[in-house]
Design a protein that fits this description.
Largest sheet of chain B: 7 strands, mixed
CATH superfamily of chain A: ATPase, nucleotide binding domain
CATH architecture of chain A: 2-Layer Sandwich
Radius of gyration of chain B: 25 Å
Structural class of chain A: alpha/beta
Helix content of chain A: 25-40%
Helix content of chain B: 25-40%
Number of helices of chain B: 17
Number of domains of chain A: 1
Strand content of chain B: 15-25%
Largest interface: A-B, 45 and 53 residues
Oligomer: heterodimer
Shape of chain B: globular
Strand content of chain A: 25-35%
Amino acid sequence: MTPFLAIDTSGGTSVAVVHNGEALAEIVIDDPMGHSENIGQALVDVLQRAGLKPHDLSAVVVGRGPAPFTGLRVGIAAAIAFAEGVGKPLLGVVSHDAIARAFFDRMTDTDRAAIAAGTRLLVTTDARRKEVYWSLYSGLDAHGAPICVDGPHVEKPAELEDLLDQKNVQRITTDLALSAVSLAKVAASHIAAGVNLNDVTALYLRAPDAVEPKANGKFGKQVSS
Amino acid sequence: MNEVIIRAAHESDLEAIMVIEHASFGDTAWPRESMALELAPNPARHYFVAFDADEMVGYGGVSVVHGHQGDIMTIAISEQHRGRGLGRQLMNRLLEVAKTNKVNDVFLEVRADNPVAQSLYRSLGFEQIDLRRGYYQPENIDAVIMKLDLTNTDASGAPITAVGAPKLEPLVLGIESSCDETGIGIVRGTTRLANVIASSMDQHARFGGVVPEIAARAHLEALQPAIREALKTAQVSLQDLDAIAVTNGPGLAGALMVGVGAAKALAVATGKPLYAVNHLVGHVGVDVLERGEVQTPTIALLVSGGHTSLLLVRDLLDDVELLGETIDDAAGEAFDKVSRLLGLGYPGGPQIDKAAADGNPAAIRFPRGLTLPKDMEKHRYDFSFSGLKTAVARWVEVAETKGEPFSIADVAASFREAVVDVLVGKAVAACKEHSVPRLLLGGGVVANRRLREVAAAKCAEAGIELRIPALDLCTDNGAMIAALGAQLVMAGRQASSLNFAADSTLPVTQVQSI
C-alpha cells in the first residue's frame, strides 16, 4: 500500500507518514493546546522527514476523537483540506482505536494471557470537566483492527468504575499516548477488511453548551400594533 | 541593522522628511510648505516613509491619475543608509500604488549626474524618453526623463519585475470562519469569481444569539462542500491558485481555528503561499471587488453581531487605525436582544426593521450611548448599546406594569433610531474631524434599511462620499478575505509563516499576521 498521511489532534498534535505498515516519519507535539499553531509546520516537517511530496501520498487518515472539541476540529479541518488539496481519499478512524492498536501490538505476555481469557482493554482519555472519554476493547481482528465492544462514551471516572464493576467487566488499562502511526495502521487494517472509513465527523459525545432563553413574547398580549 | 519598515506617510512626518530633503537636495530642496501640501490627505498623492527602528531613513511619493498616468514626485534615502536596497523597496511600493490605480505609464526625472539612481530605475523597467538641458538650477544639470509602461507588464510580471515582481492579477482562495458564516471566496486580482457562504444562523435562532460551539461545529461540516462549490463556481482548480488567504482574527477562537487549520493544511498540500489576514480589514478591502481599489483615506464603520468598530484607513495594507469600538454589546447583538425582548424573531436586525416599518422613530427618546459630553472625552468614537437595551426593557416593563397598551412598532422604531443615530453620528463626526471625505460601511447590520437611509442622508448633507458594498460582500464572506489576500500578493508582500495563531482579539492595526 502506498503511503498514508495520518493526522490526530485528540490529545496533542500527532502526524505521521506510514508506508506498508512502517512509520516513515512521525511528529508528536505534546502541547494539549496550540493545535492550530502547530499543525502547518508539523505537516511540512513530517513530509520532509519521510522524503515525500504531498502528491506521493495515497490517502489522508484522521482521528475523529473523542476529544476536547476545539483541538479535535483543527486536525479534522486540516485533514479535510489536505485531502482536497492533493485530491486523495480521506479516511476517518476513532482515535481510541489507535491507542488500543498500539497496546495490543506491544502487550506483555501476562496481558496477552489476560486478554485471551476475556479481560478487556479499557482506553480512557481526558474529556476535561473532570470526565473521561472511554472505550472497551476485546482484542484485534484478523486484519489487525481493534475490536471495540463498548464505547466510545464520556463519563466521570468514579461512575465509570461503578458501571464496569456492576457489569463485572475485568479490565486492564494503558497509559500509552496516541500515535498517528497506529492510527494509520488501524486504517490499513480496516481497509483490508473492507470497512468503509468515509465518516470523518467529529466524535464530540456532548451537546454544545447552550441554554435556550426563556419563552419569548412576554409582552405580546398587552400590546397594540 | 534592523529590518526597515515602510509605511504610508502622515502629515506628522513632515519634520523628519524635511531633514532628509535638505541633506539630500541642498539648494534644490522643496520648501517646507510644498512638502506639507504633498503630505496632506489627497487621493492623488501617495507618500511613504521608511523607518529603521525609530529613525526615518527615507521617503518617496507618487502622484497618480486613476487609470491614466503616474509621476514619481520624489524619493530620497538618508546618506548613511544608502546601498541597503531601500531605494528599490520604496520604488516598488510607489509602483504598487500606481498599479492599484490602474495607471498606464509612470514618469520620473532624474539628475543626469546621478548614475546610481538611473541604474536603479532601469532595473525596474524604466527607459529614457527625453533629456531636458539645464533642468536643475542653479547647478545647470540636465534632467533625464524616464518612463515605465505598466500596461506592458504581463501576468508573469516581466519588465518591471526583474526583481521579484508581484503578479498583477493573482488567483486567490479566501477562507473565512470567524463567526457563524463559513465563507469560501475566490478572486482574480480585484475580480470576484466565487463567494460561497454557508451560514449556521438557523441553528442559533432558538438561542437568540450565536453559540460559539455550534458555529465551530458547523464550520467543520461546511468546509469541504463549500471549497468544492467555490472551485466549481469559479471554474478553477486548486492547482491554478497563486495563493490562499485565511481570516486569523478577530472572531470566535474555536471558529477561527477551523479555518486556520484548514488553510495551513491546504497550503502545505498544494504548495501555495498562505496569507493570514485581518477580518475587519477584509470588510474594508472588499471594496476593491466593486471599485478596483479602496479609495483612501476613508473612515470605515463596521457593524455586525460581533463587531462595532470605527476605523480610519489611510492605507489598506499599511495604515489602519482603530478610532473606536463598542465597549459592551455589538450593535447586531443589541438588535438580537431587543428583538427577543419584544417577542420578535432571530436574527433581530431584519425583525426589528420589519416591526419598525410603521412605527414612529420619535415616539420614545431612548438614550444615545456615549454621546454625553462627559463620555465624549474618553469615548469620542466608542459605542455602548448595553444601556440602551436595558432602557428598552425598563420602558416596556413600566408600560406593562401600568397596564398601558403600547405599540411594538413605536418601540422598535425608536430603539432602531437610537442605534442608527449613534452609529451614523459618530462615523460622520470622525469623517469631519479627520478631514476624510469618505465613509465605507461593512458588516451584516448594513442590511438594516434605516441605517443605510440615515447614513446616505447625513453623508450627503456633510459632503461625504458614502460607500456601501453589495450586501453579500458586507456580511462575513470569503471573497473579502481572498480580495485582501490578493492585494497583499499584488503588493509583493511576503507570505505568512505556517506558525501564526488564530487570535480572537487581533488588533486592526495588524492587517497581515506573519
